[in-house]
Amino acid sequence: MRAARTVLGDVPAEDLGVCDAHDHLFFRSARLPGQELDDVAAATDEVRAFRALGGRTVVQWTPYGLGRRADALAEVSRAGDIHVIAATGLHQAVHYEPEVLREVRGRLDELFVEELTDGIRGGVRAGMIKVAGGFHGLDEHARSVMAAAARAHHATGAPIGVHHELGTASLDVLDLLCGRHGVPPERVILGHLNRFPDSRVHAEAGEAGAFLALDGPSRANHATDWRLFDLLAALVEAGHADRLLLGGDTTTAAARASTGGGPGMPYLLRVMRPRIVRDLGEDVAEKIFVANPARAFAVDWRR
């Protein structure tokens, strides 16, 4: 059975329902001082608001060492009556203290596989691997993390989600993960593509078979909605509607609907889904929010 690995256990792909394919319930980085996502009540309120609009699954891309709160994810999932998929993996080096990277260097394969199979904490298992590229390129840190992620994928079948700095270097990532390390492109999810609005590059990635994640509508400091719909339309016209994913990528407390500072997760279903239905059709909306996430995050788990 193809199943998505949630924090409460494996669920059939068809049970994922309407999905926020890239977001954060908990997140902490030295690059965002004072904006930590660490409030269990606020996270619960956020998912409840998303659930009230028909949402069923939230995929948290927060990887190892960035305050992903594995101890609280199951609590939020139960309280919000929503599926939560957690991540293992590693972000860019700049997000970590040097001692954290020294601690895990040399055992990334073991760490990723352990968190996907045995669990992160309290039996909560990760259901995807999060990695990150750099601005228009891949440094040695990114290459070593992606190599470990590829080996963990081959051991488990887990999908790999990629942070692209300002949306760049997506084809470099595919060359590395798929070309060099043999990861099937349909197991790769390319994130933040709307931040580099080159529809030709996106179409090439779609033709390769990768999933294309457009995200960040809660972040006013990034070009999102006003370009996002043009990008969606271009990719649909190019025949890639079955590759598209959408997420909120809420990374600061100020961007949450539950704190009053931003549209947050509910915005995806309150504003964006109706616009997609109106401009691109119900069939496209169903693919973006339901059918495509079911294929992207469900796995024939090997362990």
UniProtKB/TrEMBL annotation:
The modification N6-carboxylysine is found at K130. InterPro entries: Metal_Hydrolase, Phosphotriesterase. Keywords: Hydrolase, Metal-binding. This is Phosphotriesterase. Belongs to the metallo-dependent hydrolases superfamily. Phosphotriesterase family. The lineage of its organism: Bacteria, Bacillati, Actinomycetota, Actinomycetes, Streptosporangiales. Pfam families: PTE. It comes from the Bacteria.
